[in-house]
């Protein structure tokens, strides 16, 4: 199906055209695949996360009092 699309960003179109050539596809095939991929992502339900899934990050013994050191710099030794 032939369609005319106006007001396409020229830089994006040139990049798409170059990628199509690299992958041995027509611009139409390349853009159809890109649109399909984008639209499929929109159809996915948002990934819900729980705070229970968070894993604490280990910073090592040398950084054990890092938050206190940051407070000392930010508040110049004074607590809020």
Provide structural commentary.
- There is one protein chain.
- The protein is 50% helix and 0% strand.
- By secondary structure, the chain is mainly α.
- It has a domain at 10-43.
- Helix 1 (10-22) packs across helix 2.
- The longest helix is centred in the middle third of the chain and has 17 residues, at 27-43.
Strand content bin? under 5%
> Percent helix among the residues?
40-55%
Structural class comes to: mainly alpha
Task: Tell me, rounded to a whole number, the average pLDDT.
Answer: 86
User: What is Rg?
Assistant: 25 Å
Q: How many distinct helices? A: 3
The outline comes out as elongated
Q: What does the largest sheet look like? A: none
Intertermini distance: 66 Å
Output the helix-strand order.
Answer: HHH
Annotation keywords:
single chain, 80 residues, mainly alpha, 50% helix, 0% strand, elongated
Topology (elements, then pairings):
Elements lengths: L9 H13 L4 H17 L22 H10 L5
Briefly, what is this?
This protein is mainly α and 80 residues long. The chain is 50% helix and 0% strand. The chain has three helices and no strands.
